[in-house]
Amino acid sequence: MTHIKDIAKRPSKADIEALAKFSPATIHEAQGRRGALSSRLKPVDYRMKLCGPAFTVKCAPQDNIMLQLAINYAKPGDIIVVSAGEYEEAGSFGDVLANACLAKGIGGLVTDTGVRDTLQLRELGFPVFSLSVCIKGTVKETIATINDPVIVGGEIINPGDIVIGDADGLVIVRREEAQDVARLSQARDEAEAGYIEAYKQGKSVIEVSKLEPVLKAKGLIGSI
């Protein structure tokens, strides 16, 4: 078995930059309400953002040997995505490994287990999204795989899929759909800017959202 592979097909820098302009919420809506990871995965600091290709790794619960190998082999800009069985009672990543990531130019970490040293992580500014915060340590025993598809946050994530995250959450965009999703996200942003301008011009929510026929169909007619 080959345990360690590189990302077979990486998204282009242009595709990553195009998607980085938009929030995960906008992207999720624009691509048909697909790709959102579980809301249980949270950034350790609300100011943290990330956008880059998924560098996936499978870890046994309470074991971070494969995470350390992923950090060793990941390339600048990669987002390390860890599948560890949604095990909350382990702090598998902290300030020491964050410094290793920063030294390599890695773009961030998404993990379905716990992290620790969150004060230092905030000070370092390295983007970390995790299932929990936990001080309990890990072992280095179980060999698994790097850059196979994983399930994290209820979504299948392939190596090279684009991961976008901010204070509101995380979303996945398939590498081959990146250009279409960026275009749809731009259209949604422009439409929402139009709604905001309409409100400023005095239009009502019912007018802007075209709710009158919907409300009539549900038997809510008349005015207050």
UniProtKB/TrEMBL annotation:
Gene Ontology terms for molecular function: methyltransferase activity
GO terms of biological process kind: methylation
Transmembrane parts of this sequence: none
CDD domains reported in the protein's UniProt record: RraA_family (cd16841)
InterPro entries the UniProt entry points to: RraA/RraA-like, RraA/RraA-like_sf
Sorted UniProt keywords: Methyltransferase, Transferase
Protein name in the entry: S-adenosylmethionine--2-demethylmenaquinone methyltransferase
Lineage: Bacteria, Pseudomonadati, Pseudomonadota, Alphaproteobacteria, Hyphomicrobiales
Name of encoding gene: menG
